[in-house]
# Entry
Amino acid sequence: MKKQQDYIAGFEDYLRFDKNYSMNTVTAYSSDVKELFIYLKSVSVLMKKDCRHNNGACGNNNKKNTDNITTNDYGDNDNDDLDIKEITEIDIRGYLSKEYDKVKKVSLARKIESIKAFFNFLEKRHIIDKNPIFLLELPKIEKKLPFFLTVNEAKFLLDNYRSLSFEKKSVKYEFEILRNDLILEFLYGSGLRVSEIIFVKYKDLELSEGYVKVLGKGSKERIIPLTVQTINKIQKWKNYIGAHIANLNFKSEFLIINKKGNHLTRRTVHRIVHESMLITGQFKNISPHSLRHSFATHLLDNGADLRSIQDMLGHSNLSTTEKYTHLSLKKLLDVYKQSHPQAVK
# Structure
């Protein structure tokens, strides 16, 4: 019998090469399945203990024991692999019911998606005859509208971040200030994801044509337009690096880097965005994704069609982009007031 780790390795390859999922998605799905296995093995161990304590009588007390499992009971007993074919819907529901009060609905939904994908993979490979999760439904998730800046707030941020940073810091931090200003510009000016920004290379830039090539989710390449302001900030950043390359003592293929010449981490970019609001005095708890949302919302408000926005954001499905239609209530009301004969004008 194959070990669980062999099935998981095959599952990861299936997600990467057959489904063309990003490495982040593959890692998340794989981790969810591993957590399920850890739980099921822990249940199995406790049930065996219960049998021994009851001289082999394993009855209704089993439910009591599985309910009391904590994360401290989770082991990593690879020598006691579960039989994949023996996992039932009841086993999986037991795990999910335990997770229900511990995680948010959106996290629970992803766990179910991961587990469903795993057993669908096993079924397609004819490893199992019956899919134990076939009838399991995803929890209903309350859809929250993404947070975004107004046009004036976004404009103030991008027009004033650099000068206010120099005032509050000093020319000593010019490297960080110019780089951070460019990061903000990429997020709002072109709607890039953090993962796309940190891996932009010099060879990906076509400044004379006004666009940048990025590698998005699922290793899909797309072309994103650059604003004149973004191009100007890229040029300032490149000029600074060129003038200080001897002192910086590195040569990097990446555009957005730290002082060692390495690309930034996502956590660093999140911190930069949070600090940018404090520096500009707007005191809003925004994330990099908030600026991406602002990019899409302002495009839609100014007449861009959803298909074009979908292409620029790199969404696989139009339904993902459609959430931005909910953000344009002001535009909807304006159209109504201008067009309906009974509307108050």
